[in-house]
Amino acid sequence: MKRTTRLSIGLVAFAVCVCSLPKASLAASKDWKLGMQAYSFKEFTFFEAVDKNKALGMDYIECYPGQRLSKEKSGVKVDHNMSSADRKLMLRKLRKTGVKLMNYGVVGLPNNEAECRKVFDFAKEMGIETIVSEPPEDAFDLIEKLCKEYKISVAIHNHPKPSHYWDPDTVLRVCQGRSKWIGACADSGHWMRSGVDPVEAIKKLGKAKRIISLHFGDLNEFGVRSAHDVPWGTGVGKARAALEELDRQNFKGVFSIEWEHNWLNSMPDIKKCVAFFRKTQAELSDLEYKDLFKKDLSNAIMKRGPWAFDADGVLAPTPDAHGTIWTKEDYGNFILELDYKIPEKGNSGVFVRSADPFGNWIHTTIEIQIHATTDGTKHGQNGAVYDCLSPSKDANKGPNKWNHYVITCLDNKIYVNLNGEDIIDMDMDFWTEAHKNPGPPVAAGTPNKFKIAYKDMARAGRIGFQYHGNPVWFKNLRIKSFD
Same structural domain for residues 454 and 474? Predict the structure, then answer.
């Protein structure tokens, strides 16, 4: 973004797709804070940016100097020269929405104590933890003194070349010998525009423990200044590898989503970035897997007949079994791993988030289908979200062989990986009508059996394994829960 001293919400039209997206409970996995750089919504007011941020399920935001405060205060610009009354309005909006202002920038910090103190005083009053700037090198003695006094960090931002700090080596040189209060705001998008590999830059700055915060992104082209943002994980930015490297470094801090493309209709793509981050965060979680069922099945419910583990740890219905085996515990956000095997013409399923397993569960439960065939028919789509979304590819090993599922549920998102292949990426919020699947490119636009819209399905409930009259075997059932 280009900024130093300058610079109708649209949620109603987009409510179908955003639906005040909640965030996964992943605090135990990483101390990673995800929020928007408000510059991504520069065509809107700061108040609108806060609302959009919250609708995307995020509790943190970074402001920049120059954004209009609100529709009612369109003549007021957000910056460190705001009046005390306007600052209070800004804080009131943040508190009411439940969003914390973490960072401020990119803002100038000249080698002038009086001017710098204005910025630091503003940051202190607003509860800001980090000032993002590209100061002149001769200002750092003054800046470091103020950082220590105010206990507020300064993170050096990198605009693309030929800006002064485009090269991470320059940032490292300026930080050398400085206290922990001086570090980098690592802008991965601008690194890519400058021809800098973001993963290598993160390694370099991380080794010196100088990354304070990030402006994170993914681009459609590398080494091209005019490259534009794309959903994380779909571009050239090695987004997954960058997050893995930050995890390896045990990074703790703020990721600001910086989106500078399709300014007026960016919410659908930003939502994909949030989903990518949450899923990767979950997969990198330090939380341990646990067995879904105890060996004696004392934490299971079998209303219509027994299931049992054999000596090899394989769970299967006994000859007297009828019906599904359910967990006693509810699960909302989780990663479930399991192996399954079925015979020729076999049919079963994995039920998730069943809020009413012994009542109207047929219409209120999500099923990941297990089937011996993959012929594409309603009852022959192994890996499908039953009657709603077909798998993107056939990764089935076939009957009488062990297949491996990884089923991830995070708020509105359902992911299915079969035998190492991603086959389902479902956003339940697109299923807005009962008995109807959305049309292309989301789904096939076909009818479905469900009496309630999938977006209204419970976001937590029991997990179950279906007995459909055919033999079925499960093993290695384990879960990582984020609730």
Answer: yes
